[in-house]
Every structure is written in structure tokens, then in C-alpha cells.
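Ticket #398: bound-state structure for protoporphyrin IX containing FE.
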Amino acid sequence: MDFTSPAFIADPYPVYSQLRQAGPLHSLMPGLWLATRYRVADAILRDARFGKDYLSGVARRYGPERSQNPVFATVNRFLLLMNPPEHTRLRALVSKAFGVKQAAELRRLTETAADRLIGDFYRDGRADLAAAFAYPLPMAVICALMGIRADDAQLFQQESQALVKVFELTPLNDADLKAAESAASTFATYFGDILASRRRRPCDGLVSLMLKAEEGQDRLTEKEIIANTTLLFMAGHETTANMIGNALLALFRHPEQLARLRDDWSLLPQAVNEALRYDSSVHLAARVALQDLDVDGVAVAKGDTVYINLGAANRDPEVFPDPDSFRIDRAATANPLSFGGGAHYCLGARLARIELETALAALLQRLPGLRLENLEAPVWRATTTVRGLESLWATWNP
Ligand code: HEM
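RESOLUTION: The complex was predicted; output attached.
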């Protein structure tokens, strides 16, 4: 199974369908499995007999020498890859910081950023909406929440895209691995400096909050704080930026659904939910068996890694009738798994939904006659864990 072929990248869903029909778990290599059925995926996400052990999966896929690259040790400090009790402690802390702002305040923050961005390119009548809008919008919001300057952060888009590749299923080639290592070190310097300045002068925002915890009884080490500010920065914009593009593409490829939305804006939250199900921007999450287990009749040994294919689970006909059709008023038969489930359920899900609703409403309502170029053969990023478009050229009538 070639998960890097251009045909797969352009449309992975026919392959997902074959895998789902073939069995509950697909063996990728000894000790590595892929789960594609909704019920199996959902059950594993919620099962405490599965946990995280990122480095063992890395060792298996990269071999003893390449897995020593320091980028993997940095990434392993991400909240996303921790187990209880460290995970519970850090997650409680970060959730508290997220909980500080009410939904209405997050929406206002996002709307203001969207207005400003559209104001910058409106008169041009043509723009790459990925670069001019989908990336900078969630970036502006996460920077405001973290208490860092969005102008600085815009510089790190390339680094962010390089680092997120460490979650790819297929091992990175030497050049990509080097780029990820260098990105991690750029972030360590940047957030290290911010940390030093927050130590001198605490202010609002997640960075100062994490620092306070470091000063408490249960100290977070400097390395942990730096790794997790990097995670929040990256998770806070890569995922949503790609999802804005995927949602717009789905709507423009289904003009009758777009027309329904334009007729009835109360369908917007459902349209966002359906876009998340139909073509999510995060396709894989990983878990490691903490003991020998039976998964729907398949023996999984302690230490084996199971990759949970969220994108495939979201198209499972057992749970979503006629799963390959995009219908913004689809009856709610189950929640899409786009934000995962269980203990690691996405901390930014509420924010992401607000950002997606705001982004779609702003683009569709403020750009008259909006049309996407390249609807038939858009250029996808050559990645399988994160799914998104390289660019999103569009025209309108200013
Ligand atoms: C459409 C946008 C988004 C998607 C599709 C998405 C998807 C996911 C998924 C699938 C997970 C769980 C991974 C696992 O179980 O291994 C996750 C976790 C996480 N997400 Fe998101 N996410 C999005 C937006 C955001 C935003 C905006 C933020 C931050 C502001 C964020 C922060 C996080 C964090 C911190 C975790 C780790 C939680 C933990 O391990 O306890 N995400 N996300």
C-alpha cells in the first residue's frame, strides 16, 4: 500500500474503503497496525488499555540510528504524547487557560482578525486564500491566546509545516528530517526567549500560565514548557488552516450544498460538522497497546502501535449512510472522529469550530461572486497525517 503516491494523496478514500472492508485491523509491518472502521477506531481512542509511546513507533519505523534524532525527544514532550499522570496534570493546566475566554469572546477575536485580513486583499479580486487567509487567521487567534506577537509568528509557517511532518506514517527522508530538526530548534530558541521575558514580566496568556505551574509544587521543566508552547502554536493553526481549505473545496465542489448554505445561514454549524467528517485535516492518531489485547478478533501484542485512521472512520457506511456524499443537513447518526476521542480529545475543538464558522461566513459573505480556481485538480500537500491544500487560488468581483 503506497500512502505517498499522488493518486492516494489526491483522493485517499477509495483505499480507505478497501481497507475498511478487508478487516478490523490492517497490518502495516510487524508491530504496526492501521484501524479504519469507525467502531474499532472509536473504541481504541477511549480504551485506557491503549496509551502513548511515540518513541517506540519511531524506533520501529526509523531504525536504531535515525530514531536518535533529537527532534523525536522534543516531540515526545508534547502533551499529545503523554500518559497519565503527567498528561492529566498538564492537560488540566492548559484547559484552564483555554477556558478563560468565553465562546463569544473567541468569536469576536476571530471575526476581527478575519475582517482585517479580508480588508488587506479585498480590492485585488484574486488571492491565494490559503496564504492570505486560511493560515494567518488561526495564527492570529492562537498568538493572541498565547500572548505572543502574530507578526513574529508569521515567520514560522514553514517551520511549523516542517515539524508537523514528524507525525507522518511513512518515515521522512533525510532532508525532511533535517528540516524538522532545524524547525524544532528554531522554536526552542524563539519560545525560550519568550519564556525568559515572561519570567521577568509575567502577562496574560498561556505562556505565563505554564510558567506559573513551573513555579508551583509540580514543576514543569523549561524543556516541557518550550515543547508544549510549540505544540499549541502548531496545533492551534496547522489543523484549522488546512480545514478551512478542505471545507471550502467541499462546498465549491457541491454547488447545490453551497447554495443551501447561502439560503439558510443557520445551517453553518452543521455544514462545518459535515466538512469535518467529509474531509478532515487530521487523518491519523496513534496509540500503543499497554498489554496483550484482542481487537475484534485480531491479537495485538503489548507494545504494538495502532494508527487510527480518523479520515477512514468518518466515511464508514455502517455509521454514516451514503458516506461519500457531502450533505450539510445530514442526520446526526454519530460524531465524526475528526477531533479524536477519549483522554486526548482535541483541546482546541471548540475554538476550531468557531474559527471554521467565522472563516466560511466571512469569505462567502464578503467576497461577491467568489469562485475557486482549480476545483478539479487542486494541489494537495504531500502528507497523509495532515491533509490540506498547498494553495487555494480564488477570484471574486470587488
Ligand atoms: C480543525 C481543526 C483541528 C483538528 C481537525 C484537530 C484534531 C485533533 C485530534 C484528532 C487530536 C487528538 C489526537 C490523538 O488522539 O492522538 C487533537 C488533539 C489536540 N489538539 Fe486539535 N485539532 C484541531 C484544532 C486545534 C486547535 C485550534 C488547537 C489549539 C488551539 C488544538 C490543540 C490540540 C491539543 C493541545 C491536542 C492534544 C490534546 C491531548 O493530548 O490531551 N487543536 N486535535
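RESOLUTION NOTES: The chain is about 55% helix and 10% strand.
TICKET STATUS: resolved
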